[in-house]
Every structure is written in C-alpha cells, then in structure tokens.
Amino acid sequence: MKPLIAFWTSMLAIIGMTVAAASAAIPRDQARLDAALGTPVVLEGGPSRAFVKIALTGFEFAPDRERAPVNIAIVLDKSGSMGGEKIAHAREAAIMAIERLDRRDVVSVVAYDNSVQVLVPATRVSDRAAIHRAIRNLHAGGSTALFAGVSKGAHELRKFLERNRVNRVILLSDGLANVGPSSPAALGNLGRSLAKEGISVTTIGLGLGYNEDLMTRLAGMSDGNHAFVEHPSQLAGIFDLEFGDVLSVVGQEVEIIIRCRPGVRPIRVLGRDAEIAGDTVRVDMNQIYGGQEKFVMLEVEVPAGQAGEQRELASVDASYLNLQTQRRDRLSRQVNVSYTHRPEAVQKNTDTAVMKDAVEQVVNEDSKKAVQLRDEGKVEEAREVLRQNAQKLRESAGAYAAPELETFAEEMEADAQRLDDREDWNRQRKALRKKQYEKERQQSY
Amino acid sequence: MRPGVAIALLLVVLLPGVLFVASAVRMMADREMLLEHRLAGHRQVTLRQVEQPLADWLATLGARLDSTLGSIPAGTDDLRALVRTTPWVRQALALDRDGQRHFPPPEEPLTAQERDFLERTRLLWKDRGILYPAAAEGQSVDRGWYAWYWGDEMNLIRWVRRKDGMLVGAELDPARLAADIIALLPDAAPADALLRLRNERGVILYQWGADVPDHPPAPAAVRPLESPLAAWRLEYLDVAPVRSTPPPFWLLGVVSLGCLLMLALAGYLYRAHRREVEIAGQRVSFVNQVSHELKTPLTNIRMYSELLERELAEDEDKPRHYLGVIRTESERLSRLIANVLSFARSERSKLEISPRPASITQIVSGTLETFRPVLDQAGIEVVTRLPDDDTAMIDADAVEQVLNNLVGNVEKYAAGGGRLEIAASRAGEMLEVRVTDAGPGIPPDQREKIFDAFHRVDDRLTGPAAGTGIGLSVARELARLHGGDLRLLETDEGACFSLTLHAPLAEANP
User: CB atoms < 10 A from the CB of A164, how many?
Assistant: First the structure.
C-alpha cells in the first residue's frame, strides 16, 4: 500500500509542478527577465541608496530544436614564447573543440606572430581533416601582433556574419602585444566596435606573460569570456568550457533599458559598461546563454517618501533576438518601492538574494581598486581594502544568510595575505583579474 | 729594345684592353642601375597595389557614412542609436543651420562617452569653421574628412552638410579603422621583402612578408596612404640585401677573349720586331766584322801600291796610271769601310769625337787631294774658297769623313755638272763649310730622307752609281756630335750641303 501512496504522491507532485510552471506564464522558449530591488521597503524620510538587480536568464533550447549555428574564429598566438608544449596543447585544444562543431557551423583559424597568417579561412566545418592539418602545421616563433590577429580573426568572421549565428573570436595569447596597437584602451575600443556587429571576443591568457588588463578589457568591451590558464595542459578544458558556452547561446543583441522615474537618480552600474544619460540607463549585452543568469546591478538614489507610500522606481525594458524563434522578444518589468517607518520592516522585506549579489559586486569593485593600489606599490593600503572587503562579506554573510559570501571572504583574506609576495604577484594579479571578471560578468567558468 | 717600341707595344695592348674593360664595367654599372630602377619600380608598384584596396575601402566607407549621415533624422535618440550600432562610429555630432551644437545635445544630460567626445573636440567647438576650411573660399563643399590630433592620436570625422542646413558628422573609431585596414592587408608578400604599415605615430600597425630581422634595414620605398590617412605610410623593406648581380658569362667571356687577343697580337708584334732587330743587328755586326777584316788587307794594298809607285821609273806612265787606279779605288774602299764602321758604332751609340787643334783648310785640301784623280777623271772643276789660316778645335777624322762623303757623292751623282765648290767661313765659334755642285740636284720630297740610313735617292741597281746609303746619315750624326749640323740648302740648281761645326779657334788654347 505504502509504495502505491508514494507513487501517487509523487505523480501529484509532478502534475502540481507542471501546473505551477505553466501558471508562471513564462513560455519555455523565452528568457526570463527579473527586476528586483534589494530593499523594496525603505525607511521614510531623506533620500537613500538602493540596488536594483535586473537579471536575464536564458531558456534552454527545446530538445527537438537544434542549437544556433556558430561562427567561430580561433586566433592563436604563435609567438616565440608559445614554443614547446604550449603550442602543442593549443593545437590539440583547438582541434578537440572544433570536434564539437558540425556542418552548419563556420570556423576559421588565424595565427599571429610578427604578422598574421590565416591558417583556415572561414569555412563550414565539413572537411575536418583539412582543418586539423592546417592547425597541426602551426609552429611557434616571432613577436606578438595581437591587434592584427584579432583584426584578421574578426575579418574572417565577417565572411559569414549572420544575425542568427553566434559570432565569436576566441583569442589565445601568452605574451604582451608588441607589434601594433597594444594599449588596453585601443583593444577595448576594438572590442566595443566588434560588439556592435554582434561579435564577442573571448580572451584566454596562457601562462604568466600576458597582459591581463588588455585581455579583460577586450573581452569586457565585446561581452566575451575571459580565462586565465596557468598551465597549458588546462587549455583543452578551457576550450571545452568556452565552446560549451558558445553552443548554448539562445539569444543575442540584448538591450536592457532602465528608465528611472522622476526623482530617482541612477548612480552607477556595477561591473558592466552602461550608458547613463540623465535618468535612462542602457546596458547592451551580446548574448544570453541557455540556463545562465546575466544581471545588471544598478545603484540608485531613492527619493524621500512617506511611510505607507508606494511608488514606481523604474521601468525595465529588455529585448533580445531569440535564436530559437528568430524573433525579437520584448520583456518589461517594473520596480516599485514602498516606504516605512519601521526598520524591522525594511529588514524583513530585504531580498537577500539580490543583496548578496549586490554586496559581491560592490566588493568586486573595491577589489579592483586594491589591485590598482598594489600596482602603485601601496601594498598595505591594498591589503587594508581587501581586509575591509572580507569584513564586509562576513557581515553580509550573516545578514543575508549567504554562506557563499563567507567563502568569498576567506578567499579575499587569502589574497590579502599574499599581496606582498613580489614573485607571486604577477600570477596572483592574473588570478584576481580573472575572478573579478568572472564575478562582474557572471561568467559560467 | 728601344723604349719607344716598348711603350708603343704596351699601348697597343693596354689601351684597347683598358677601353674594353672600362666599357664592360660601364655596361655592368648600367645593368645594375637598370635593375635597381626596375626594382624601385617594382617596389612602388607593390606598394601601390597594396594601397589601392585601402583607398577604395576608405572611399566606400566615406560614401556609406555620407548616405547614412545625409538621411538620418538628427534627433538625440537617432544619433545615439547610430553610434550604438555602427561599428566604425565612435561618436556623432550635429550642428544646426546656424552652426550651433545640436548633438551631443547641449541641454540634455550627456553620457560619459559624449562628454569625452566634447573634451576631445574642444578645438572644434571653439571654431567650427575648421571642419570645412574649403567652404570659406566660396567653394560649395558639402562633405569631407576632418582630421585632428587628440594627444598623439589622429582622429577622423566624416561630415556632411545636408539640404536641411544641418551639418552631421561621425567620428571614426581609430581602433576599428586600424583593425579594418589591417584586415584588408595581405598575409603574404615577396619572400625577400617585409612590408609594413605605420600609423601617424609611427607605430607599426601591421607587417607582413619576410621574417623580421633583428636589425631591420631602412625602408627601400615608402608610400603614404591617400587622404585622409596621409599621415600613415606603407614601407617596403628589402630584408635580404639586394645581391649585386654577377656579370653575365657572355660579357666575361668577351672581355677575356678580347684581352687574350690583344695579348697575342702584342706578343706577335714583339716577336716580329725582335726578329727584325736581331737580323739587322746580325747584318750590321757581320758587315762590321767583314769591314774590320777588310781594313788590314786594304791598308797593305795601299801601302804596297805606294811603295811600288816609288820604285817606278819616270817614264813608266802606264803602270803608274794603273797604280793610281788601284790607290784611288782602295781609298774609296777605305772610306766605305770607315762609314760602315762609324755607322756600326753609332748603332751601338759609341760614336765619339775628340776635337784637337786642326786646320780646316788643310783638311779640305787633304780630302780634295785624295779625290783628285777621280775628280780629274770625271772632269769636275774644283773651286775652293778657304780661309788662310784657320786652326780650330776640330776632330779632323770626323770632318774628313763628312767631307769624303759629300765630295764622294758629288763625284758619284753630280759629275755631269762639272763643278765642285767648297767654301769655308766662320761666324763666331761656328765654322761653316759649304759643298756645292752643279749636278741634277735633289728632288724636294727627298730633301730630308737622304739623311736617313739606307736611303738612296735612286735605288735602281742599274743606277749611275753604287753606294751603301749610310754615308749622309753618318755624316749628319758626326756633324751633330760636333755641335753643328749637316743640312741641304735650297738652291736653284745643283745641291748645296752646309756643314756647320762648333769649332772654337785654337789660338787661345795652343
């Protein structure tokens, strides 16, 4: 009897869940837009600050639907420093990654040293043997014309540039760009320009010789991923993760526009580049990945209000090109705030999940400042910033019941400890930049 | 060998040889220059070929921007959308009909990027005229590029003046501009060349072709891009040093063959000349030896014929006549031999004179005495005009030999004139002896040649007289050794030889 009851209970549970999901009125082939205030209830009186989290979560492709075709340019550093096992691992990682593509996809392989060599011009992945041969012919030697490499990689992408394709440059470099433009600003500008065409650049830094500021800037401005690979043997894994991300893209040309109501002043967007013009905040993303949440954390000034009053804070409009339906989806949310005179009510209504993310972003920003201080040689001040960060994280971990923040705090402490290790700083800086980037972009790996 | 001949031979070989080699070298240099010209042309062509697509692309981009800028609604949102969606555009600007700023909007909140743009273009907002300088000259320019430097980076704006009176412009993203131009550049180049693109700061944007050497050479050719990117330049570097082409085999062959021929010719000429000289030397030394051998018997013949003459009785006219003939003929032979020996000595440059006090009158008389029988026989009347006493420093033997030759010639060639005049006169230290005949004279074209050795006026074997052809040559030589000369004076008839001698009077030094 008991097993039968259990069976029915579970059946009911499944039916109930399905109904619940349906009642949520979110179509299965649409991304979910959430807009939530960290503190939806604020104290009456004087203006206060609050965090608004606008999150887009990608849907999963229906099992009977094929994923979006991709258009990938792999841009490999073959400068002298890549010699030996680095280039060997890079070759194998690229070949393995291309294995995951099929004949709908387009791939090109570009290698650069002093100049640029297009090993595989943009081509459909049908003749794998030819592609593999071209990659295996790759040998290291020469300087690092990184800018030109990316330029040519993007040029190859443009041959098959389509709105319904995921267009991505995957850049691998182990050294400093020493031929052509080499400032993070120049590469950032290039990244931003490529993003306008729907091209994002994922940057993979290999070893300890690359410029992590340049690489994160290029990835950041074009909304790609960034990875720090200390040992070449990890390359295959990273390529696999990156291709996993690329193959899971469900939406592109993402626009999020937040219009603050009169009296509400946008202060800053944490982690992402945003265009703030008066009370309108605009954030563009290149893509949303299936099942992944990408969010914009906006800090606003909430105007003074009276207890019991409720008012609209901002409206959020998001739109993106749905790669499954190939239509443009438009989503809207509204963010409201209410005023109270009871601090307990504020605390009780606090959205701990939003606050947890907000704290992480704030701490992340401070952590960037710590890196800057350390660059200036102010080791102690940098350490102090990290310690304060850790302290803030610990307090928040308790307040928002978020044990992850505790872990974050421990990492922060450990980072603070190691700051004065001159020899390790290079490695640590790269690791820090990577962590910061991962946090601010909610990167999956 | 005489030095003149050696120099001549050397010239024969060296001059054409040097000319030959010089022309070959010149030819090589021309070839090299031609190659260099061709190479320079090739470099320029290569750079032009590289540059052409860039210029085309830039023109296309300009046209594309023009059509967008010309038609876009100039609202704030529209221009922001333009900036957001156009990959090449970093920022936009718009001026209204009155030249006032319309975008970035002067009265609305600006984005951070727009504020940066206003900062970058500060100068432009102070003087909007710099956007379209040509318009000031009355030309109706309605579109164009505007380039300016912010920091050390060049920025470009494409602007269009529209029909509605607005001026709308787009600032190019410098990084994107560089990236797209790089993407247009090829991967491969001639294997021995490295091509480069440098931007306005001299930064190498892109390079392709040969491997980059550790110390790159200076560019062999440079080509600036077309406006508005005239501050950028393409460079062509010869990485492998230009090998000077070896001279072609045929040229080397011709030159060496020519030199060989010249050498062979010189060798042949040298050998021929030497043989001739040797043969002549042998001939002279043979004649010399023979002459020496003849001298002793001749002396004996003369001596014994004189002895015999003394033994003869007064009335034995016939034998006396015969003896006279023997004597004159042997004297003639003596003169001949003396000439030959003198000539042989002069050939070995051993001819010397040794002046002693002597009387020219006596020498002339002595000579005439010797010739008396033959002169009488030829019916030649002899006239002399000689100074009375004239003892001077003279080599009597040499003067006698000269006179022998002159008088002998008269006897031989001018006997028909029937007259011989010998006159001596003095002028300071110079003594002149004139020997004049009334014979047929000497043709004008022979006047100098008669003094050459082995030259005879009439070379026919059947000629009226026989001779060796060295007499006058030796005579002149002797006269010159004596500080004077032997010349043929111009006369209306016959021949007049003038012998001058440096013969100071002997009284001062007895």
Answer: 12
Selection from B69, B201, B173 nearest residue B116 by Cα: B173
CA distance A31 to A295: 12
Q: CB A6: neighbour CB atoms within 10 A?
A: 10
Contact A181 B178 (CB under 8 A): yes
Mutate to test the interface with B, among A117, A143, A151 (most CBs of B within 10 A): A151
Identify how many contiguous H helices and E strands chain B contains and give both numbers. 10, 16
DSSP string for A358-409: HHHHHHHHHHHHHHHHHHTT-HHHHHHHHHHHHHHHHHHHHHTT-HHHHHHH
Task: Assign A106 a pLDDT band (cuts: 50, 70, 90).
Answer: very high
B182·A148 Cβ contact <8 A = yes
Task: Give the 3-state secondary structure of residue B374.
Answer: helix
3-state secondary structure of A245: helix
Going by C-beta distance under 8 Å and a sequence separation of 6 or more, which residues neighbour residue A91? A135, A136, A138
| Whether B224 contacts B230, CB under 8 Å | yes
Phi/psi for A42 (5° steps) reads -120, 165
Cβ-Cβ contacts under 8 Å, A148 against chain B: 182, 205-206
Give the single-character DSSP code of A305.
B
Amino acid at A321: L
How confident is the model over A187-207, as a mean pLDDT? 94
- CA distance to partner chain A, nearest, from residue B212 (Å): 7
And the tokens for B54?
Answer: 């860039």
* A398 CB-near residues (< 8 Å, 6+ apart): none
Q: Minimal Cα distance from A284: which residue of B?
A: B84
The 3-state DSSP class for residue A443 equals coil
pLDDT of residue A4: 52
Q: What is the DSSP letter of B444?
A: G
Q: Is the CB of residue A98 less than 8 Å from the CB of residue A124? A: no
3-state secondary structure B308-352: HHHHCCCCCHHHHHHHHHHHHHHHHHHHHHHHHHHHHHHHCCCCC
What local confidence, expressed as pLDDT, does residue B367 receive? 85
Which element (helix H / strand E) includes B455? none
- Residue-wise DSSP of B376-414: HHHT-EEEEE--S--EEEE-HHHHHHHHHHHHHHHHHH-
Measure CA of the first residue to CA of the last residue in chain B; give whole Å. Answer: 44
Residue A374: per-residue pLDDT: 92
Q: E-assigned strands of B85-229?
A: 89-95, 101-103, 143-150, 153-161, 167-172, 193-198, 204-209, 221-224
CA pair distance B49, B463, nearest whole angstrom: 92
Which stretches of B181-247 are assigned E, i.e. beta strand?
193-198, 204-209, 221-224, 233-238
Q: How many CB atoms lie within 10 A of CB B270?
A: 16
Q: Cβ of A155 and B183 within 8 Å?
A: yes
Residue type, A65: R
Report pLDDT digits (tens) over A28-65. Answer: 789 999 999 999 999 988 789 999 999 999 998 888 88
Query: CB of A108 within 8 A of CB of A120?
Result: yes
Residue type, A375: D
CB distance B174–A186 less than 8 Å?
yes
Tell me the shortest Cα–Cα distance from B225 to chain A, in angstroms.
Answer: 17
Dump the DSSP string for B457-494: S---TTSS----S-HHHHHHHHHHHTTSEEEEEP-SSS
Span B256-268, average pLDDT: 87
Q: What confidence tens digit (pLDDT) does each residue in A111-143 have?
A: 998 888 899 999 999 888 889 988 888 887 777
Q: Give the separation between CA A314 and CA A320, rounded to whole angstroms.
A: 20
B184: chain A residues, CB-CB within 8 Å: 155
pLDDT digits (tens, 9 = 90+) for B170-211: 999 999 999 999 999 987 777 778 899 999 998 899 988 887
